[in-house]
Design brief:
The complex is a heterodimer of chains A (about 150) and B (about 325). In chain A, about 35% of the residues lie in helices and about 15% in strands. Chain A has about 150 residues and is an alpha/beta fold. Chain A has a single domain, classed as Rossmann fold, CATH 3.40.50. In chain A, strands 2-1-3-4 form a four-stranded parallel β-sheet, sandwiched between helices. The N and C termini of chain A lie far apart (about 60 Å). With about 325 residues, chain B is of the alpha/beta class. Chain B has two domains: about 170 residues, Rossmann fold (3-Layer(aba) Sandwich), CATH 3.40.50; about 120 residues, no CATH class. Chain B is built from twelve helices and seven strands. In chain B, the strands form two sheets. A five-stranded parallel β-sheet of chain B has the order 2-1-3-5-7, with helices on both faces. In chain B, strands 4-6 form a two-stranded antiparallel sheet. The radius of gyration of chain B is 22 Å and the shape is globular. The chains are: A alpha/beta (about 150), B alpha/beta (about 325). The interface between A and B is large, with 38 and 47 residues.
């Protein structure tokens, strides 16, 4: 019998809000599915879209980016930049035939442990509905022939 | 006197523009041609595959391949050329990164055939011919040259400009070749050689080239055109921005930019503004970004197969 599909999630969480919210969910002993690998970053604005795609190529089925609520960004506007980038990335992904819902941007404050747990439950359920991604890397170029002998 | 180096030029899934691009060298082309011996060049001289097969291994000094890999025959030919050549060069955007025909990777081979030829089409030999005369099968996807064989150098561009072809022939004929893997273009961005003035304005609109007559001295990106200059290699002399058209990225991304789509998403995400930032502006910002029709085709116009593995038939 095939094993039930458990989606793999990479969660980029800013240290000021979403990361602290995730910590609060843990210290409050809230239950939520353990599908995410959290990666703490200084700001959601630091999340390079290259990392999101790299997470997919490395086997992730979904990527969560957690930042501060609008107006709360420790660096003033990092969350706004990321919102616009995620908006564009999702358009590009859907043109590729990848469900844009696989990239999720959420505002989670340091006091919102319960919201973090709810977001994780929702996202896991949504990804279970979408199924595995299996994004392959693009063609790996053949290496140039090093130190070719000249006749 | 030393024998002239043997030169071969071959086309796979291309448009022929690369073969024509040599003419842009002007009078210096005569000098180049007088210093090489053409052994194989289907666009120019009457040589057949059998002539190529009869050559000893690595007897061709340099082979320039243009076009994307699209058929099984393309793949056979580039392996044959690789075997017979000392140096193999990806010439032009298709061989370099997959090129414009690589955008077809968004559709399956079956869909493409159905679109072009209608339902039920099967490649078949001509009347009276045997099976070997049938046209070659399409590959499931278009592929850059380097996906199949080792590539020594790249002369990029769509088609390569004389400012990129010239230095390649200079290097080849002087024997002073750079390390393998070299791309005959700048490592720094096109913006460095663009004469337009960049003020790093915030973008309050995104426009397509037909929608405005751009101001002649200001940066096109500042004026709302999606110019790929910031993520694209220089070397062409900013030919398109000089002619009031945004760069579409044919020379390929700079090493620093990497994936051109992700680099442009980062740039546009930083630049777009609809008044003061905040939840009240979200909708208006999205509207500005929506004016960028087909972001994937815009960012990966020449490079989809090199960066994206097509994953399903839509």
């Amino acid at each position: 019998m095939a094993e039930a599909f458990e989606p793999k999630i990479v969660a980029f969480l800013c240290r000021w809000c979403a990361g602290a919210g995730a910590d609060l969910a843990g210290t409050s002993r809230l239950h939520y599915p353990p599908n995410a690998i959290p990666i703490r970053v200084n700001c959601s604005g630091r999340v390079d879209m290259e990392w999101v795609v790299e997470a997919f190529r490395s086997g992730a089925d979904g990527v969560l980016i957690g930042g501060c609520h609008p107006g709360d960004c420790h660096y003033v506007s990092g969350n706004y930049k990321t919102r616009r980038r995620v908006y564009l990335l999702r358009k590009v992904l859907s043109e590729m035939g990848i469900e844009p819902e696989r990239v999720r941007l959420e505002w989670v404050s340091a006091t919102e442990g319960a919201k973090f747990a709810r977001v994780m439950r929702e996202f896991v359920a949504e990804l279970k509905g979408l199924g595995p991604l299996h994004l392959e890397a693009a063609e790996r170029p053949a290496e140039p022939i090093a130190a070719r002998e000249r006749v | 006197m030393r024998a002239k180096p043997k030169l071969a030029v071959y086309w796979t899934g291309g448009c022929g523009g690369c073969d024509v691009s040599f003419l842009e060298l002007g009078p210096s082309l005569l000098d180049v041609l007088s210093r090489v011996e053409i052994v194989f060049w289907p666009a120019l001289v009457d040589t057949k595959r059998a002539d190529l097969e009869s050559l000893p291994p690595r007897s061709i000094a340099v082979t320039l391949v243009n076009g994307t890999l699209r058929t099984e025959e393309n793949v056979e030919m580039v392996h044959l050329l690789r075997e017979k050549s000392e140096l193999l060069v990806a010439f032009g955007a298709c061989a370099h990164l997959g090129g414009v025909p690589g955008l077809a990777n968004l559709a399956s081979r079956e869909e493409i055939l159905r679109q072009v030829t209608g339902d039920g089409f099967q490649p078949a030999p001509p009347p009276g011919g045997d099976a070997a005369d049938a046209p070659p099968e399409l590959l499931p996807q278009a592929r850059p040259l380097s996906a199949e064989v080792a590539v020594d150098y790249v002369v990029p561009g769509c088609p390569p400009m004389p400012s990129l072809i010239g230095p390649f022939f200079d290097a080849l004929l002087s024997g002073d070749l750079p390390a393998p893997g070299h791309v005959f273009a700048q490592d720094q961005a096109l913006c460095k050689e663009c004469p337009r003035t960049r003020e790093d304005r915030k973008l309050t609109r995104v426009v397509r080239p037909h929608e405005i007559v751009p101001e002649p001295t200001q940066c096109l990106l500042d004026q709302g055109m999606v110019c790929l200059g910031p993520v694209t290699r220089g070397g062409c002399g900013a030919a398109c921005p000089k002619a009031a058209m945004p760069c579409t990225g044919c020379v390929g991304p700079t090493p620093e930019a990497g994936d051109p789509a992700l680099a442009m998403i980062a740039a546009l995400g930083s630049l777009v503004r609809a008044g003061d930032e905040g939840p009240a502006a979200f909708e208006a910002e999205d509207k500005i970004l929506n004016a960028l029709v087909d972001p994937l085709g815009t960012f990966y116009k020449y490079s989809l197969p090199a960066y994206v593995r097509a994953r399903r038939a839509r």
